[in-house]
């Protein structure tokens, strides 16, 4: 019996040689996802509720996705960029049909996925679907083994799907190494433009050297790096801390057509306060993260709606340069400062308080934060105030609520003199 280390080396040699056989197609050379995808996804809020008898409103069924498409198109979301309606796990029948083709659960999706795609397209939206590189999906529905990749890509294209989330439960590292590039190729070969979201990094340790972010950027439009988000402030902090603690590895990997994905926005659910909801929106915008909500758009309260529909935050998230932002520093006082460079020498700044006592008055100046000399105009994203002038040397104070943020959009009054060049 080979010793584990030896076995591992053999597997990696084998995988390397097999990988040479897989033509690496640039999935993201197709011009999709030039800014982080925006939309709605079922998983975090509706999970694998298949009980349509007792819970018709909330079960995973075509009605749920039609309801959300109605809300996205009628309540102002689509115009702001929220365009993908994404089906997650548990949409399938427990078995493939007699030709081996995936099919939706006949009771919960009686009209079929093609009709659902038409419904979504007729409202000016796009449809996303979920599959799993492995024997079964994470919830035990039919998976996409290597031999089924082409067939499933063709099936999705024939239904009019616009986005695939390709999960990685129930497969091994070698299958994933082959399968993720193969699916990229198969999606391209259908001729239908489909955004390709890969969960690969989650299954192989999230960081280099196990994860090759250059390869991911070549084959996927976005990728889930880390654990699933849950409906709690703890979960949001756990995820954002991982992303910023590891920014040196993952931040350079992002750009137009290739995005790190810290998972869904949970704003509007049960776990976040108003302050924490603003914090998620602010930091997901700094991180150039996909803005994919998982909430109940039919019963969203106005405060959550205002945060998710904040135009300044969205335009920071969707900035065309596509540079992912970074944490600049953490103060001993538990104040943290985040920054993202934007088009036209503008910037987004976030001041976050990790305190739990009272609003904290943080004193600083743009110069201390590393900005070049000159005059700036500052706009407070959540206050929505009129832009205010600020000189780089001027001391200012921001009042940051516990677990909340102050988020600024700022730009130099004279472009040539004053922009930050930290990255
Ligand atoms: C994994 C993914 C989640 C969701 C579930 C579905 O946990 O990371 O986002 O898709 O599977 O089973």
From TrEMBL:
It comes from the Eukaryota. It is found in: Lysosome. InterPro entries: Aldolase_TIM, GH, Glyco_hydro_27, Glyco_hydro_27/36_CS, Glyco_hydro_b, Melibiase/NAGA_C. Residues 322-404 form the Alpha galactosidase A C-terminal domain. It is an enzyme of class 3 (hydrolase). GO terms for biological process: glycolipid catabolic process; glycoside catabolic process; oligosaccharide metabolic process. Its main location: other. Keywords: Disulfide bond, Glycoprotein, Glycosidase, Hydrolase, Lipid metabolism, Lysosome, Signal. Its EC number is 3.2.1.-. Pfam families: Melibiase_2 (PF16499), Melibiase_2_C (PF17450). GO terms for molecular function: alpha-galactosidase activity. The keyword Hydrolase applies. GO terms for cellular component: lysosome; membrane. Residues 1-27 form the signal peptide. PANTHER family: ALPHA-GALACTOSIDASE, ALPHA-GALACTOSIDASE/ALPHA-N-ACETYLGALACTOSAMINIDASE. Belongs to the glycosyl hydrolase 27 family. Homodimer. This is Alpha-galactosidase. The lineage of its organism: Eukaryota, Metazoa, Chordata, Craniata, Vertebrata.
């Amino acid at each position: 019996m080979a010793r584990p280390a030896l076995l591992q080396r053999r597997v990696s040699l084998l995988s390397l040689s097999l990988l040479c056989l897989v033509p690496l197609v640039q999935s993201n050379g197709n011009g999709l996802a030039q800014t982080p995808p925006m939309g709605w996804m079922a998983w975090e809020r509706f999970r694998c509720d298949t009980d349509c008898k007792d819970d018709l409103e909330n079960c995973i069924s075509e009605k749920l996705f039609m309801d959300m498409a109605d809300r996205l198109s009628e309540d102002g979301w689509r115009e702001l960029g929220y365009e993908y309606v994404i089906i997650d796990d548990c949409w399938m029948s427990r078995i493939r049909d007699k030709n081996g083709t995936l099919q939706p659960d006949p009771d919960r999706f009686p009209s079929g996925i093609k009709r659902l795609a038409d419904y979504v397209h007729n409202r000016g939206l796009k449809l996303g679907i979920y599959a799993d590189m492995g024997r079964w999906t994470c919830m035990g529905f039919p998976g996409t083994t290597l031999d089924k990749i082409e067939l499933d890509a063709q099936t999705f294209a024939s239904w009019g799907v616009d986005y695939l989330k390709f999960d990685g439960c129930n497969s091994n590292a070698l299958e994933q190494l082959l399968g993720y590039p193969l699916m990229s190729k198969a999606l391209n070969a259908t001729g239908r433009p489909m955004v390709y979201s890969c969960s690969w990094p989650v299954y192989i340790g999230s960081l280099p050297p196990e994860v090759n972010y250059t390869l991911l950027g070549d084959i996927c439009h976005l990728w889930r790096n880390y654990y699933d988000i849950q409906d709690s402030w703890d979960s949001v902090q756990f995820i954002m801390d991982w992303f910023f603690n590891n920014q040196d590895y993952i931040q350079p990997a992002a750009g137009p057509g290739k995005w790190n994905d810290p998972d869904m926005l949970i704003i509007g659910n049960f776990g976040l306060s108003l302050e924490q909801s603003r914090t998620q929106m602010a930091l997901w915008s700094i991180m150039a993260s996909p803005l994919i909500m998982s909430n109940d758009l039919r019963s969203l309260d106005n405060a959550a709606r205002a945060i998710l529909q904040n135009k300044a935050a969205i335009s920071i998230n969707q900035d065309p340069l596509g540079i992912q932002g970074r944490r600049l520093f953490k103060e001993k006082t538990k104040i943290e400062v985040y920054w993202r460079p934007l088009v036209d020498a503008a910037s987004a700044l976030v001041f976050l308080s990790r305190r739990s006592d009272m609003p904290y008055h943080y004193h600083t100046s743009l110069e201390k934060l590393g900005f070049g000399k000159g005059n700036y105009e500052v706009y407070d994203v959540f206050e929505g105030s009129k832009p205010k002038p600020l000189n780089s040397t001027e001391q200012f104070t921001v009042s940051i609520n516990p677990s909340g943020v102050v988020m600024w959009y700022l730009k130099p009054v004279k472009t040539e003199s004053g922009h930050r060049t930290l990255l």
